[in-house]
Here is the input.
Amino acid sequence: MAIRPPKLHSLPSFLVPSLLYSRVSIRQLHHRVSSASIPPPTPFVPDPQTFLTLIGRQLSQHAAKITSWDSLFSLSSAQLRELGVEPARSRRYLLWWREKFRRGDYGIGGDLQDVVDGVGEVRVLEVKKDAAGPQSLGPEAVKKVVVNLPPQALDKEFRAGEVKAVRGVKVQGAHTIIGPYVELVKGTNGRVARIKVKEGMWEERRGHKVDGGERRKETVRSRRAAKERGILKP
Here is the structure.
């Protein structure tokens, strides 16, 4: 005997309009959220191939399966599984990094704006800032920051707040740029460096499981203790 779904007219009349409104509203809201949740690509991360390369864990091998930027940020875990993105922890890791990118939480180089062929050039720039208090009438103080600006934009003087410092890198000593994946340009005395896209440069390393991890820790430790007491055979 077939079981028919309940009809709306079997419900109290005061509930029917609200249920219909809720269904339509939820559907529309889901559509709006799905569209709005796709962040724009950046100069350093312009396509899915680059994104998967940066986050590592060999996910770049699946780049051919995720053909567009919209797909990268809209595919569900089930859809990724159908495309062959395995194992499950790789899908979880991809979704986790996807959410970080949505929030603007990038790895090194993610905030670079002047990028050519996956390479961003950074350089030390001296910016002027007014000294605080009574000293503001005296000479201006100078602060050194690492910026990502094209050479032609460096002809003018900048004040603090007019330029954005590159995240993840800093100036060491008088003028040497330091930071992860920074390659100093020869002949610049450390004042100019390059950051280029490399496999796994944003990768979050997996932790080492102790005694089988949280789910198996108690079992593993109890069996070890029993074995040490001679209750279990090796």
Notes: The beta strands are 115-116, 119-129, 141-147, 170-172, 176-178, 183-184, 192-196.
